[in-house]
Amino acid sequence: MHHKVIIVGAGPVGLLLANLLGSKNIETLILEKELIRNPWSRAIGITPPSLEILRSLNLAHLFINNGIIGRAAIFFGSTVRLGTLKIKKIPSKFPFVLSVSQAITEKILESNLKKYSCITLLRGYKVSDIKLSSKGYVIECYNIQELKEITYSSEFICACDGEKSIIRKKVNIPFIGYYFKPTFIMGDYFDKSFFKRDAVLWFTNKGSIESFPLPNKKRRWIIQTSKFIKTPKEGFLEKIILKRTGICLNEKDKISQNSFGVQKFLADLYWKEKVFLCGDAAHTMPPIGGQGMNTGFADAEFLAYIISTYLHNPKLDLKFLANKYDYYRKIAAKSATLRANFGMQVGTARNSLISLIRSTILIIFLHLPISRLIVPYFTMLNIPYNQLYKVLQKDNIVNSALVEKKD
C-alpha cells in the first residue's frame, strides 16, 4: 500500500508530526514497534512555544487541563535556600511551563489522530530496512503479532524513531557527539511534600537533586550519581535525597524508577533525498528543562510545513526546502543544546569551591531584577526560530523555492 508520508516512531514528536500532517490532509502512515504506549512518564515539561504549536491544533487547553501549571522554581545550595525564580510577564499567551507526563502527552496526541481519516497508526511493526523504488521508498518491517514480514511504500519518510534511529542508520547519516560523565536516577512518587506546583532544585557539593510536580498528586525526583547504577539497591534513591536535601521520602510512595546517562549528538544532515530526521533522531541533548522534546516539537512543525507545501505544489524545489529545514532547525538545536549543556555542567559540578561560587552567583541573580533575563532561558522563548512563523517572517521560503526551481 502506498502513502504520501510514512512516519517511523509514535513518540511525542512522531505523533505531533502526524497530527500536523493530518490537519493539512496529507495521507500518512505511522509505524511503531511497541504494541502499547509506555505507561511511565519521561519527558514532562512543555514550554510556551510548544503550547503555541499545540494551540494551532486546538489541543493546548486539553494539555493544560491534564497538566500542572508551573510558575516558579526554588533553588537551594548545599545548606541554604538561594531564592526563587518566578515566571511572569513573558511575551506569550502561555506564561508558564506545563508539567505533564509523556504518557499523557502521547495519549492526547494519539487520540486526536482519530479526527483525521488520512492518518493510520500501526503498532507492533518493527522497521528493518528502507529501499528506493520508482514511487519513492519501500519500507520493510516485521509484524510482531502476526509474525510476518510486510512492506509499505511512500513518497516521504520521516524518522521520529529516537536516538538509535534505524532510518538514520540505513541512509548513512552520521550522528556526531559524545556521552557526558554525570549519570542520574529518576523516581516518580506520590507527592507528600509541601512544594505543591513549584519545581525545586538543589545544587550541592555532593551532587544535584531536581524535583518537579506531576499531575494526579505525583512528583518526580532526579538524583545525580557518580557512576551509572542500572539497578540501585532498595532505598538508595530515598537515602541520597535525604542526605542532600533533608527530605524524607517513603519508598512505598514510589511509582517507578529508572537510571539514565546524558548525551549530546547532532545529525550531520537532517535529510537525504526524501528522508527527513525529526526529534531525537536528529539531535539529543541533556534533559535540562525539557529542551529535547520541545525542540523536537518545533522540528515537527517546520517539517510538516515543508512536506505539505511541497505536496500541494510539486513545482517547488524540494532540495531548497529541505536545506531550509536543515539550516533553521540546526540553529535551534545547537542553541538548545548549548544551554542544556551549560545548565548541566553548572548544576552537576561537585567541587566545593565551584559550589560556593555557584551559590553566590545564584543568590545575586535571584534577588535582583536581572533575574527576569533568566526566565526566557527556562521557558525556551529565546531559542532562535523556536516557531515556524519566526522563520517565515524572516525568510520567504516558498517564493524562494519557486525561483530556485525555475533557475
Question: What would you say this structure looks like, in words?
Answer:
- The chain is built from twelve helices and 19 strands.
- The chain has 407 residues and is an alpha+beta fold.
- It has helices spanning 12-23, 48-55, 60-65, 102-112, 166-170, 236-245, 291-312, 318-348, 352-366, 375-379, 388-394, 397-406, and strands spanning 2-8, 28-32, 45-46, 68-70, 72-76, 81-86, 97-99, 119-123, 125-133, 136-143, 148-159, 175-190, 199-204, 207-214, 218-225, 254-267, 271-272, 275-277, 283-284.
- It has a domain at 2-41 and 102-177 and 265-406: FAD/NAD(P)-binding domain.
- Helix 1 (12-23) runs parallel beside helix 4 (102-112), helix 1 runs parallel beside helix 7 (291-312) and helix 8 crosses helix 12 (397-406).
- Strands 1, 2, 8, 9, 10, 11, 17 and 18 form an eight-stranded mixed sheet that branches. It has an eight-stranded mixed sheet with strand order 6-5-13-14-15-12-16-19, sandwiched between helices. A three-stranded antiparallel sheet has the order 3-7-4.
